[in-house]
Amino acid sequence: MFEPIPIHAANPGPMTGAGNWTWLLRGRVPTLIDAGTGERQHLQALDEALERRALAKVLVTHAHTDHASGAPILSERMPRVRFRKMRWPERDSRWPVAWEPLADGDVIEAGETTLTAVHTPGHAPDHVCLWHADTRSLFCGDLAVAGSSVWIPVSLQGDLGAYLASLERVLALEPARMYPAHGPIIEDPPTLLRNYLRHRRQREEQVLDALGCGDRDPEAIVARIYDELRESLFPLARESVLANLLKLEREGRARQDEGRWTPVDP
Ligand SMILES: [Zn+2]
Q1: If you measure from the C-alpha of residue 215 to the centroid of ligand 1, how many angstroms do you get, rounded to a whole number?
Q2: What digits encode the pLDDT tens for the residues 69-108?
Q3: pLDDT at 238
Q4: What is the pLDDT of residue 265?
Q5: Would you place residue 233 in the very low, low, confident or very high pLDDT band (cuts 50, 70, 90)?
Q6: In angstroms, what is the span from residue 116 Cα to ligand 1's centroid?
Q7: pLDDT given for residue 72 in this prediction
Q8: Rounded mean pLDDT of 174-193?
Q9: 124 alpha carbon to ligand 1 midpoint, in Å?
Q10: Beta bridge partners of 54
């Protein structure tokens, strides 16, 4: 039986919404997916769900704070726990535990079964999903959030082109269910992934159109393509537009010169 137990990280906030889900697989190799942020309620809920068993492993989907920063506290409380994630040395060193590397295709014992690591960069360079082939289930970290789109933070090595390739890769797996780090369980992943891809293609068209209309910087493009944007959301929208521009630049479809962007005619 494959029944991941949701354990809320109790870390609501502007960047995490209601807060993160971490996922526990009980059984022979008790394994937690994502570390949370060390909140007391999270640690208590984890203790209760473990029913006095010790945790064997923590698999971390990526080194953003809301997924990784709870590692040292977990390590203090359960010194034998092993921590694995894909390497991102500049970030991983913020949370001093003995990180063991995880690579694409690695098969990891977890609970009563095995999971396969699927490198899915874009939202973060080190982002991995964990695939349970028997049930076609995917622990998808921040690859997808039902009812919302995913932030591509270019200032933290986010990469829109890589993200779209990751969405295509996961779609090709034909997952039946996805367990995200934010929001509800995703029961129809292919529909959500196709909607994501369509939305991103539309956004890219809008950015190209804006360049064609003479907009030369992300601020002008944001003003054109987002109507009625709350001021507090402006930095996120700007970064999203910048992610599009950087993708277009990499593909030779736009260029920048001292912060001024122009389209490249095909
Ligand atoms: Zn993240």
Answers
A1: 30
A2: 999 999 999 999 999 999 999 999 999 999 999 999 999 9
A3: 94
A4: 80
A5: confident
A6: 20
A7: 98
A8: 98
A9: 7
A10: none
The rounded distance, in Å, linking the Cα atoms of 128 and 138 is: 10
- C-alpha 177: how far from chain center: 16
Strand partners, 101: 85
Residue with tokens 């034998």: 80
Q: How many Å lie between the centroid of ligand 1 and the Cα of residue 101? A: 18
Integer Cα distance of 78 and 250 in angstroms: 45
Ligand 1 center from residue 118 Cα (angstroms): 16
Tokens of 27: 């059984």
Helix (H) or strand (E) holding 66: helix 65-68
Q: Is 21 exposed, middle or buried (0-12, 13-18, 19+ CB in 10 A)?
A: buried
Distance 150 CA to ligand 1 centre (A): 9
Ligand 1 centroid–CA 114 distance in Å is 24
What are the tens digits of pLDDT across the range 8-61? Answer: 999 998 878 899 999 999 999 999 999 999 999 999 999 999 998 999 999 999
pTM of this prediction?
Answer: 0.95
pLDDT at residue number 14? 80
Q: What is the Å distance from ligand 1's center to 213 Cα? A: 33
Distance of CA 212 from the midpoint of ligand 1 (Å):
32
- What is the whole-number distance in angstroms between the Cα of residue 247 and the centre of ligand 1? 20
- Distance from Cα 63 to the centre of ligand 1, integer Å: 7
Q: Ligand 1 center to residue 248 CA distance, Å?
A: 23
Is residue 150 predicted with pLDDT exceeding 80?
yes
Give one DSSP letter per residue of 212-228, joined into a string.
HTT--SHHHHHHHHSSS
> Nearest to residue 244, comparing CAs of 211, 227, 57, 133?
211
**CB contact at 8 A, 46 and 7:** yes
